[in-house]
Amino acid sequence: MMKAFSSLFSLSYIPLRPAAVILVSLLILQITLKTFHLLWHKPKKTERFFFEQGLLGPPYRFLLGNLTEIVSLMLAASSKPITAPFSHNILPRVLSFYNLWNKTYGSTFLFWFGPTPRLAVADPELIREIFITKAKFFDRYESHPLIRQLEGDGLVNLSGHQWALHRKLISPVFHMDNLKMLMPSVGETMVGILEKVAATAAAKGEEGGVELDVAELYHSMTEEAVTRTTFGRSYDEGKAVFQLQTKLMAFAAEAFNRVFIPGYRFLPTVRNRIRWKLDREIKEKLLKLVSCRKEEAAAGEAKDLLGQMTSPAAAGITNSDIVEECKTFFFAGKQTTTNLLTWATVLLAMHPEWQDRAREELRRVCGARDLPSKDDLPNLKTLGMIVNETLRLYPPVVATIRRAKADVELGGYRVPRGTEILVPIIAVHHDAGLWGPDAERFNPARFAYGASRSARHPNAFMPFGLGERTCIGRGLAVLEAKMALAAVLRRFMIRVSRNYVHAPTVLMMLYPQYGAPVIFSSICEDR
Ligand code: HEM
User: Fold this and answer.
1) Whether 430 contacts 439, CB under 8 Å
2) Is 471 annotated as a binding-site member?
3) When comparing pLDDT for 266 and 443, which is higher?
4) In which residues is heme bound (predicted)?
């Protein structure tokens, strides 16, 4: 056997030990050459390929690409708040590496995420190609494993036939007529929260108002909305599941902030064991819910995710598909809308003239009604413009990534398979070339004639993405935002606290780094 082994390599005349040494050396040489090829030769060749087409960028560095520069630029940016009081020029702080390289190399440039080439694309014409006309050449980017475990293998992470099937089944949940049925419960939750605020202010007897961190204020309302959308009449059981999911998210956020060690999440550490237990509990509870709902089909009630996915139309959908989809809804639907509401409140607190205009509109449209009715909502144009301007200046999802799954031509450039494309939504939203010289000003009036006519390009506004993979929950998010802001503005005058430090930053989404303290003063008037 040994003989056969050595003769296989024509080394039979060499004594066995030296032969083994040579074999191992050859193997090491081969691995070294392959590593050198993958981590140096190939990236450098790709870099030349792009540079020859005029697509420049920071030079590739062995193994890490530009990661070191990205991390140090981001750390430096997040170490100091924005000095100009309430400036909305937040791009240099939020995506500092993009801001720097965009100035040096232009709006389409190449940089390196480790040994993988990433093309930053902020030209709406090219973005249109990526999301709409040439979407079939691009895949969604696979999330970090910890995030993926949380966000579930639902719509956000699916592709091809499975994605199309899920999207078709789920879409009716978000039809406006269906969403409007949610309004009373969402409104009630918000009113409940605000009554507590008013009671606290009254108990403290603070004439100047009560200070609240608005980043915390909206959680229960957005949770209410996403729980009803997902579970409908199985609300109470669903709520228990989402409470576990919140705990799990806290663990993941903590792990995400640490250095990523591949494979670490599989080790039976105390924290990992707690995470696994929570994950198991969530799955078990969801599976129980799914089988209950499969047994009892009901008619004449609002459509919810669970109902749609257990309906007879859902042939081919497994229980585990449903579990993953519920997780996705929670992940994609809660924090995004909470962030939108946080920034909208901060912006209104910074710009009292827009509070007045929105309040005036609420009085005119809703009259004596405490909360907007479903017919009032489309008439709350000023509030809609404020929501849009918030999403433009402070988009909760600051960027999105695609991966070219074939060689493809993009705006005349040749892009090789495997290239990742970074679409910096926030940079497009702050581009003076698209939005005019007042791009950094909070001016909701720019949306007076609709989102597609607000900028020099109809696709310049894209807080919910574009094309077929656009956010399925956008209608719900806007409805929640209008409802919550209406409830706040009818009861309170708001102003920014002296303790507020203007420091937007990214941790998966766009956050106020030091919280968002805002002063709420009750309005005493007859409505
Ligand atoms: C202000 C609130 C929200 C923002 C800013 C937002 C933003 C986005 C964006 C940018 C995308 C596309 C990502 C990409 O193309 O890579 C997306 C997709 C998605 N969003 Fe939202 N979202 C919000 C609220 C919601 C809500 C309330 C839900 C559900 C309850 C939701 C569920 C989803 C799902 C399932 C997808 C994936 C759609 C698909 O791939 O077919 N989102 N969202």
Assistant:
1) yes
2) yes
3) 443
4) 471
